[in-house]
Amino acid sequence: MAPPDREADEESVPPVSESEIGAAETRMRKSAAPGPDGVPARVLALVLHYLEPRLRGLFDASLVSGQFPDCWKEGKLVLLPKPGRPPQSVAAFRPIVLLNEAGKLFERVVAACIVQHLTRVGPDLSDAQFGFRAGRSTIDAILRLKAVASEAVASKGVLLAVSLDIANAFNSLPFGCITEALRFHGVPLYLRRLVADYLDGRSVLFVNQEGDVVRRPMSCGVPQGSVLGPLLWDIGYDWVLRGRLPPG
């Protein structure tokens, strides 16, 4: 399936508005743990009125240049234990990356721009995509499955359900899949350039067994704990839901 042939004029990058900053601020989790800079979300929210003009200028410059600030590409790795798993197993922990709140604020602005494009211009995400989408939940997915099952029973057909669990999902999505998917969905060039730079040069910090702080680069995947991560995951894997199964 060929992607739409649309390229955005680099000079037509819309400036970030006060309302966009305000909308992003309302979606901040004020109780979230801080990133490497140690600034909690509640503190940023308290001073955002004073920082808003400078942050808007920074966001505008980043969108025009296609460069996501390097200081916001660094995350602090935290391992959360999974219940019922042996602690000596690597699979017993869920990796979460704590990011700087100012960077996450910018991510919310960028994510809103991408979602707005998908819904107003498109192609939008597949109607079969329920994860990480506003106004949709697991209940909606179950109701859809129930409707399909009822239709199969009414037509005296056979219904088979296949469940797939993608191991280490967020961390395994190749960057190239994300950028190609953004292009397929016709996302404006300035946003694609920014996302490409957002994914490039990322790193995580963690404390090893000796108590030393270690920095490791990220070569694939989207950071768990990020704002853009779930949206990029949906976009990157949307082609799976668009695939046509053979009849019978």
From TrEMBL:
Cleaved signal peptide residues: none
Domain Reverse transcriptase: 61-248
Domain of life: Eukaryota
Annotated stretches, region: Disordered: 1-36
GO biological process terms, semicolon-separated: DNA biosynthetic process
Pfam families found in the cross-reference section: RVT_1
Stored PROSITE patterns: RT_POL
Protein name, entry field: Reverse transcriptase domain-containing protein
Lineage: Eukaryota, Metazoa, Ecdysozoa, Arthropoda, Hexapoda
